[in-house]
Design goal:
174 residues, alpha/beta, nine-stranded mixed beta sheet, 9 strands, 26% helix, 29% strand, globular
């Protein structure tokens, strides 16, 4: 049985919202990982991204005005913040369920992140992660992992997706 569930879809379709609802549905269980949020101006302009671990730590992952040698599009990426806050949330605990939002171009700039994700993919722990729809290198490797299955989130299925994911978890042997 596959123990890695990857959620993909076009940007803005609601992948993060699906993971937030799964996190809420799993309240009381041992859950590790992190979610991402957009940082927006008062006028609604997207200024960057923040990560929040499931135990409440936060850091700015990327920003339009962030000076960094690492860039994805117009955003400077703070790899050090991801390494300090996000990566420890992925430390292996074989009794935990992992939620990772997301395995994308920004996150893959961190070798510590890709190493932590690779360890989880090879572990017995269930992993539910959002993954960039397009991407090569590590993103492609993750999608081809033998323990992974890939589901597409669409506007038509996103409301039902959290329940499907919880059922997928429940069907796994203990």
């Amino acid at each position: 049985m596959k123990s890695v569930l990857l959620l993909t879809g076009v940007p803005g379709v609601g992948k993060t919202t699906v993971l937030r609802r799964v996190n809420d549905a799993l309240a009381g269980q041992r859950i590790r990982g992190f979610l991402t949020d957009e940082i927006r101006s008062g006028r609604g302009e997207r200024l960057g991204f923040r990560i929040e671990t499931l135990d409440g730590r936060t850091a700015r992952l990327a920003g339009a005005g962030l000076r960094s040698p690492h860039k994805v599009g117009r955003y400077g990426v703070d790899v050090g913040a991801l390494d300090a806050v996000g990566v420890p949330a992925l430390a292996l605990d074989e009794r935990a369920i992992y939620l990772i939002d997301e395995i994308g171009k920004m996150e893959c700039l961190s070798r510590a992140f890709t190493d932590a994700v690779a360890r989880l993919l090879d572990s017995p722990s269930p992993v539910i992660a959002t993954v960039a729809q397009r991407g090569t290198g590590f993103i492609g490797d993750v999608k081809r992992h033998p323990r992974a299955e890939l589901w597409e989130v669409t506007r038509a299925n996103r409301e039902a997706m959290p329940g499907r994911i919880v059922s997928w978890l429940d069907e796994r042997p203990s």
